[in-house]
């Protein structure tokens, strides 16, 4: 990192000229930054957003757009799903850890209904339609789906299943244009602009500026090769995203993710985390990662997933991000999908948002023994896996992994195998430890004066597991908190 | 953490009285601190060690005493084992990651032979005897054994197997009295004292002291309720051990290890890491953990280990710490041992350092089907696992996990099962990122002036995997480096 500029804080008394000034300065104009800007401005602060690219949106506008919400949102109710904050909390506690921040999860669940209404009030559109089939996203523009394995083992028995993946209505399915992420961000940015939030683009932060009491009072940034100094009279909000594209940080914290970033953008270089660490900020769960698995969930649910020993290891009808995490973290990134012809035909007849993942199998065989041999698995391994699976499947049960009855069918012949080794990617979930007001905490435990953060530069509601929508969810939720808290600071 | 004292640095210009002064001030008198003290003193520095307990030793003197060394040490040669630094490096790179610090591993392997000779020169005794059976430690006072799975799959095919667990000769087997750890530490402390190293006990560090250039020039500590200020003219060496006993840090970084510390001491509260983080120090691999598995390796090698699905998941003849890591990290801490009567009798006839782990089985049965049912495993799972294992074992092979032929025997009847769920514990391996001179690195990438660290408050040669002896190994090796580097600083 010696070629990169220092992230050590600068001293305010050494700054002679302030190029920009505002009450609240926000670094990053993705979902956390936009929500912080709106709330800070509404609270009466003069707000300036610094964005390193040429436009707003961040990773959010490139994403699918899921926001993880529940507890009885208007959309859940309209579609006939019952949920409570307590029920949502049970699921999130069980599925997103280990090590979840219990206070943050509780707070998030309690505020979830209001947060949905707030998003709607800013103009984010949600279509009253439910997508109930396996998938990374709905096949069309439905507004609600299961996005975390809520209705699969083991969580279906821990909390009452309720879909919580809330998806802004897309205007077409091309992600990055008017996909769900764009349709989330556009209204938020429009709202911010209409309120008078100022934004400067092509400015990337490099260091924080502190006064003699170590209070954060601004940022040093770079614009077209020039250093600029930005004064923040009330506070600085870091909303700069993950460290998925910082190779040194990935090596130091999440080596399994090395060279496999996904669902992220190159600007996610961890700068927000590092400038705060330079002030003694506490970090948490730096090894946690969302894991994408490049496969069609419509196929996975209808087959069996086996590891390099030919053993089943994950409920196939769960959220495919869980399949990805189990594969990368617990199976050394080695996995195979096995399906018979009938199941494959059924899968191919379904709709899916990821039909491009429907690749032909690597192996096709007339018998399990033949497939096992072709796949190079030790003799007897896949055969006994299928034998045990079929024995129970004939009775519609799966005592090994408790796949739901609707997906449990004996595997016949002919059958095929897909090589899904190294088929994962992901982004990082670890980051700055923040309190419920999005204040950045020092390793001493108390907040760093003048410094706030939200989004994927913080450790949020996910500390181990993941559900689609939790990143835009806690980013937007705690982005709002950051904006409010920073604006409430006295000058 | 709000009740704990702040770890924010103090400013030197605010200190009016220095209670102690030395060229090099070392926090912690375990193995890293002792080695740092010896080298700093020999390099001409006036050295003061601050130890928070009433006596020297730290976790090292309570430990088994293994030091992981190789590349052709005098002891390896005397016992007929061939090894080279390159071969050792191949093993360590494969076994201790992912994400190993390649430069540190290379450096450590290159210096390993010299480091062994140095330990001998300080008076650490090693008996020229090899223990070749499975075990956590030798059954007697042998000086060398395999301690990382070097001679098991998959490493036996990656690097030429060589034992590298070097064990100081115990005077009796009671750990903490004259066990291996004591016999390592006693000569080191005697050497330090004979050189004139000063030590003050019952002093615990609380904060670092920095000058106007943010250079570390001392520590604030506490002794019997009083604050004391200690000036370090050349440098401060942090050698305060792991964070195994800091519950908040475990929650934030290694939640799987919550409430299960082992092979550690309560003083390991992460203070060295936190005072350096308050200065912007970089940390690395905070999720990594050594995992102890409370079981007799003589039994494990002779049986099969299965997970909660009745599936084998780890080569049973490997280092039992690897079995523990695989169990805790990849099998949700759920594992069972299955052995037939003949194998159990053979195991019980062996010598072992942990005969107290030889508990009676939880289940005994006449057939595999009966055992499977008694253990509550889904029908067919354990039966097919044993069936596939036996089919290959009859030919002396184990294509599933490549257990060595000598341990592969068909499982007959009667047989028994041991419930090894929640049978793990461990200590943390993550910590401060240091360079090859043990300088603590800032998140900017450059060293923090005046600050050095070694031992388990640093991220060392292990970033994911583990081998017995690597902690005392890199603690002593980089402790020496820290002492030399600190002493070489100009006043």
From TrEMBL, chains A, B:
<keyword id="KW-0285">Flavoprotein</keyword>
<dbReference type="InterPro" id="IPR027477">
    <property type="entry name" value="Succ_DH/fumarate_Rdtase_cat_sf"/>
</dbReference>
<dbReference type="InterPro" id="IPR036188">
    <property type="entry name" value="FAD/NAD-bd_sf"/>
</dbReference>
<dbReference type="GO" id="GO:0033765">
    <property type="term" value="F:steroid dehydrogenase activity, acting on the CH-CH group of donors"/>
</dbReference>
<protein>
    <submittedName>
        <fullName>Fumarate reductase flavoprotein subunit</fullName>
        <ecNumber>1.3.5.4</ecNumber>
    </submittedName>
</protein>
<dbReference type="InterPro" id="IPR003953">
    <property type="entry name" value="FAD-dep_OxRdtase_2_FAD-bd"/>
</dbReference>
<keyword id="KW-0560">Oxidoreductase</keyword>
<dbReference type="Pfam" id="PF00890">
    <property type="entry name" value="FAD_binding_2"/>
</dbReference>
<dbReference type="GO" id="GO:0008202">
    <property type="term" value="P:steroid metabolic process"/>
</dbReference>
<keyword id="KW-0274">FAD</keyword>
<dbReference type="InterPro" id="IPR050315">
    <property type="entry name" value="FAD-oxidoreductase_2"/>
</dbReference>
<feature type="domain" description="FAD-dependent oxidoreductase 2 FAD-binding">
    <location>
        <begin position="23"/>
        <end position="469"/>
    </location>
</feature>
């Amino acid at each position: 990192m010696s070629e990169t500029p220092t992230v050590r804080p600068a001293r305010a008394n050494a700054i002679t000229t302030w190029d920009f000034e505002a009450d609240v300065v926000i670094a990053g104009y993705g979902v956390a930054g936009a929500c912080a800007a709106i709330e800070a401005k509404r609270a009466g602060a003069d707000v300036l957003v610094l964005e390193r690219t040429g436009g707003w949106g961040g990773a959010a506008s490139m994403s699918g757009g899921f926001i993880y919400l529940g507890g009885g949102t208007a959309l859940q109710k309209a579609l006939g799903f019952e949920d409570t904050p307590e029920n949502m909390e049970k699921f999130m506690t069980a599925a997103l850890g280990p090590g979840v921040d219990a206070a943050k999860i509780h707070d998030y669940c309690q505020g979830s209904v209001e947060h949905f209404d707030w998003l709607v009030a800013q103009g984010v559109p949600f279509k009253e339609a439910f997508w109930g089939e396996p998938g990374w996203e709905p096949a069309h523009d439905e507004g609600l789906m299961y996005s975390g394995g809520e209705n699969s083992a083991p969580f279906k028995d821990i909390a009452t299943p309720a879909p919580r993946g809330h998806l802004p209505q897309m205007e077409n399915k091309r992600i990055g244009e008017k996909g769900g992420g764009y349709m989330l961000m556009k209204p938020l940015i429009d709202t911010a602009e209409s309120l008078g939030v100022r934004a400067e683009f092509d400015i990337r932060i490099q260091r924080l500026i502190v006064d003699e009491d170590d209070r954060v009072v601004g940022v040093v940034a770079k614009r077209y090769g020039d250093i600029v100094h930005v004064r923040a009279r009330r506070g600085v909000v870091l909303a700069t995203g993950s460290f998925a594209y910082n190779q040194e940080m990935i090596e130091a914290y999440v080596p399994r993710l090395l060279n496999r970033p996904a669902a992220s953008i190159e600007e996610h270089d961890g700068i927000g985390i590092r400038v705060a660490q330079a002030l003694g900020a506490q970090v948490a769960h730096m090894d946690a990662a969302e894991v994408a698995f490049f496969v069609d969930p419509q196929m996975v649910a209808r087959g069996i997933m086996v590891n390099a020993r030919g053993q089943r290891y994950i409920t196939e009808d769960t959220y495919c991000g869980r399949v990805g995490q189990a594969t990368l973290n617990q199976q050394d990134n080695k996995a195979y999908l096995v399906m018979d012809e009938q199941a494959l035909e059924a899968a191919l007849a379904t709709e899916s948002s990821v039909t491009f993942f429907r690749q032909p199998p690597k192996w096709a065989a007339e018998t399990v023994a033949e497939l096992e041999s072709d796949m190079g698995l030790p003799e007897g391994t896949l055969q006994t896996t299928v034998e045990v699976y079929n024995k129970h499947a004939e009775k519609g049960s799966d005592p090994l992994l408790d796949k739901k009855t609707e997906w449990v069918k004996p595997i016949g012949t002919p059958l095929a195998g897909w090589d899904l080794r190294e088929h994962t990617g992901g982004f990082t979930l670890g980051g700055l430890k923040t309190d419920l007001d999005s204040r950045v905490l020092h390793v001493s435990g108390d907040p760093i004066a003048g410094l706030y953060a939200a989004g994927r530069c913080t450790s949020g509601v996910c500390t181990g597991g993941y559900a689609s929508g939790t990143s835009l969810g806690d980013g937007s939720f705690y982005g709002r908190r950051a904006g409010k808290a920073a604006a409430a600071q006295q000058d």
